[in-house]
Amino acid sequence: MALAALFISFTILMLLGAPVALAMGVASMIYMFFSDIPATVLIFSMVDSLGGITLLAIPFFVLAGEIMNSGGVTKRIFEFANLLVGHVRGGLAHVNIVSSMFFAGISGSAVADTAGLGRIEIRAMTEAGYPKPFSAAVTAASSCIGPIIPPSILMVLYGTMTDVSIPALFLGGLIPGVMLGVFMMVYVYFAGGHYVSPGKRASLRDILRSARRNILPLLTPVVILAGLVFGLVTPTEAGVVAVVYALAVSVVLGDLRLRNLAPMLTETLVTSTQILFILAMSTLFGWLVTTERIPETLSAIFAGSGYGEIAFLATINVLLLILGAFMSLTSILIIFTPTLIGMATSLGVVVVLNLTVGLITPPVGWALYIVTEIAEIRFAETARAILPFLIPILLVLLLITYVPALVLFPTELLFGGG
Do the domain assignments include residue 344? Predict the structure, then answer.
């Protein structure tokens, strides 16, 4: 009775358009009304969910991305990427993707990537003659690389809740992140080459000169990942290092303005509060799911199906892809974390990529709405243009799902095993 009340009330609230965090919190309280669990569990669960010091890494990484955005680093990254690949068939579409790969190592967030680089990328592509829907689609699709290449806010959350090593998750995202970029560039080479002729090939001297000017921001992911991998800093301390480094870089480059500090801090506060509020409200929901032994039941069903791990991984992928089109990424991650506890590092990267696809999938694709607003086109145009980009993304998802060595190789190379 209590379990039915939990899911029925949650479903009804979602259909009525209630915020996901509120729906989970209210559904959990309704469950407790029909069970013998004391109401104090709700309060203690929420407080305890926010007690981990690792969670402090989230606002720090968000702030580091905001500093880099306001400090003019995004423009420098775009200019450097243009020198590298602007001459390839597909031109600025390749520059768009490569820029996202570089910026992914700074912000750890697909939304930050879209909002930060999006205006520069879409304006440059449309002025060069690319159709607005195609420009918006490339920008939204390439933002999926943000949570995969370290650092990653979603991976910090996943590692915190599952006790999986966050440095291992970060390392695990390296190869899949590069694969995403390469696979998208292959698609763009054939699909986007007829719009505009590519630019002239930059000389090696120009590339080296630009690399020297922009070496500090480009080294951001190296600084963060090196500290984590070699045990010099914890994930939280890595977030602090990222903020300090971002400030130093922006000051050295001379692009940071004091008037931008207040908006940066405000945006960081809003984003971090949203994430932590969802975490607090949904922790109890996940605990109740675990208490009802739903993960064990699902595992038994898959084990009895005769397909075992193959069926389980396929079902997880399909389910997360569907949910990602309707719910926020953080909410889905937290709801399904109890089912994933104790599973491999490789699955953590699979889950994060799965959820990231939701950012470019209607009707709740945040990245789609952002690029639609920037490009000043109709949402339907962006949604149609993004569909072909799902092919390279889903190919990478399929590969890392059934070839976990693609995720685990960097960790095994450095540490000789998981």
Answer: yes
